[in-house]
Design a protein that fits this description.
- There is one protein chain.
- The mean pLDDT is about 95.
- The radius of gyration is 18 Å and the shape is elongated.
- It is mainly alpha-helical.
- It has one domain.
- The relative contact order is 0.19.
């Protein structure tokens, strides 16, 4: 396994993307979140959105065991670090596992700290303040964090799969907004957090001598 100094740091473009997404997230909180939630509430959402999410959950084994994905990633990291002939893969697995675990932990605490109501809950309570409400667990989106923390690091490692992986994240974000389970900014906030953590882990771990293009 190459030393850390022999491997390149994370692409700075990721940090720029995270910054742009953070600004967009804040803008959505103050502008389009509430009007879109009210608009969506006037229509009955298609069941295809939720069925698509269910299918993706089965792909990563979520219905079988909620912590299956982090367990698999950590196990792969440990195994590749311990087996000499596979050791060259260990930094990549460490990068994937670290990004996935950190974002899921931050997401859990983020929900508690922000106390944001979901759009359907907010509308039932009269459509006033959305943040700092008792029982609010909307920001950031858990589903977008879950799938984004797998897809976005993988997209960095495997550029040829970048488009389908980005489509998965976009679909999950759209689905959660379409059924009024999250505001637009909840999904963008989750993506911002994942991208920022991906950059930080890629800078820290440096999986490759050169990043794939």
């Amino acid at each position: 396994m190459l030393s850390r100094d022999a491997r390149v740091p994370a692409p700075r473009s990721l940090l720029a993307i995270a910054g742009a997404l953070a600004v967009l997230t804040a803008a959505c909180v103050w502008t389009i979140d509430r009007p879109i939630a009210r608009l969506i509430a006037a229509y009955e959402a298609s069941g295809l959105w939720d069925r698509g999410i269910d299918g993706l959950e089965w792909v990563i084994g979520l219905p079988l065991f909620k912590l299956l994905s982090p367990v698999v990633l950590v196990a792969a990291m440990v195994i590749t670090a311990c087996v000499r002939r596979w050791r060259w893969q260990a930094p990549a697995w460490m990068f994937l596992a670290g990004t996935h675990l950190i974002t899921r932990i931050v997401m859990i605490y983020g929900k508690e700290w922000t106390g944001r109501l979901r759009p359907n809950e907010w509308l039932k309570e009269g459509g006033e303040a959305t943040f700092c409400r008792e029982g609010g667990l909307s920001f950031p989106s858990g589903h977008v964090t879950l799938f984004g923390s797998l897809a976005i690091p993988l997209a960095l490692l495997f550029p040829r799969a970048r488009i389908p992986l980005v489509i998965v994240v976009a679909y999950v974000a759209a689905a959660r907004v379409a059924v009024n389970a999250h505001f637009v900014s909840d999904t963008l906030g989750a993506i911002t957090m994942v991208v920022a953590t991906t950059w930080a882990m890629a800078w820290l771990v440096r999986p490759f001598r050169t990043w794939p293009r």
